Amino acid sequence: MPFLSDTLSRVKPSPTIAITNKARELAEAGRDIIALSAGEPDFDTPQNIKDAAKRAIDAGKTKYTAVDGTPALKKAICAKFSRENGLDYTPAQVTVGTGGKQILYNALMATLNPGDEVIIPAPYWVSYPDMVLLAGGTPVPVECPAQTGYKLTADQLEAAITPKTKWFIFNSPSNPTGAGYTRDELKALTDVLLRHPHVWVMTDDMYEHLVFDDFEFVTPAQVEPGLYDRTLTCNGVSKAYAMTGWRIGYAAGPEALIKAMGKVQSQSTSNPCSISQEAAVEALNGPQDYIRDSRAVFQRRRDLVVGLLNAAPGIRCPEPEGAFYVYPTIADCIGKTSAGGTRIGNDEDFATALLEETGVAVVFGAAFGLSPAFRISYATSDAQLTEACRRIQTFCAGLK
């Protein structure tokens, strides 16, 4: 009898974490490494949020809380959804977890049965398919190439839906591409979903506030109120407020689903950190200047990186609408050999040779379900980004 669960054979460790760890090991060994693999703002958490956490500690708010969030945080989340998204929820329709990942996982664990299908546009965040597999479902990736702006079309969604489809996972702006859906593009998708009442929508809005130029963020239940009763609107404080390590994610949806997710959480982690919840209340209710200021920095970095990467031979880098990622295609680099002697057979070969020969760590496209490409996180300094892109240009120029 094998000791480990058969379920584990269906999933793999996170490639982004693996590459980040490898880059860290090389740096500790003395290599000059520029890591562009982690999806994490490089800014510190705003001071007002840190101060709120300190006050909570001093006030002794260090005990267990309600399993799926304090009343104060749920109230702040309801106010946020009403104020920013035009969505009205009660506290009973809100759940809080230890990061956005746990929220998604709880929902899948609470709803999926063997044979249930989950539609996932590709490129996708690396964890979506594996969480579906862990929950016993079947991921159904749908490739969305650069030619369509890395966005799913209504015809593709229609073709992917079967009687077994339970969820459609939607992420805009996207990790890994930064692609954002306009209101009209999203309305085309919601029109399809209205025709299939057995399909639920799980929308990951984690990058909601990181949008550029004149792009307007919208979420599915906002665009199509007819989907309100079968949409789980997920978000968190990690990216918008530089609070990745605080681990607070949240979602709102039908009360029966929220109760089921709470049951899963009650038998796994129980409540999120009490201090982090107090900090999240301040993040949502307090001054929002930080979001405006950080968004301006990220837009400048996007423009810098897109321009430099498009100057590299064999790379084509679309300009994303949001998040802090770019997802350049490298079809013209495949089949060539690097200056260090590595044959580039696929995008994983490209990323490996790039790290070993130049010290730049990126995540290869196959990890996100669409090749040949790679993802760069530009959540680091202009100087680091400029040097990294210079090294990528040199590496690409050396491919023969």
UniProtKB/TrEMBL annotation:
Alphabetic keyword roster: Aminotransferase, Pyridoxal phosphate, Transferase
The reaction(s) this protein catalyses: L-aspartate + 2-oxoglutarate = oxaloacetate + L-glutamate
EC number per UniProt: 2.6.1.-
Gene3D superfamilies: Aspartate Aminotransferase, domain 1, Type I PLP-dependent aspartate aminotransferase-like (Major domain)
Domain Aminotransferase class I/classII large per the UniProt entry, residue ranges: 32-392
GO MF entries: transaminase activity
Cofactor: pyridoxal 5'-phosphate
Record-linked Pfam families: Aminotran_1_2
InterPro entries listed in its UniProt record: Aminotransferase_I/II_large, AspAT/PAT-like, NHTrfase_class1_PyrdxlP-BS, PyrdxlP-dep_Trfase, PyrdxlP-dep_Trfase_major, PyrdxlP-dep_Trfase_small
UniProt family annotation: Belongs to the class-I pyridoxal-phosphate-dependent aminotransferase family.
Protein name per the record: Aminotransferase
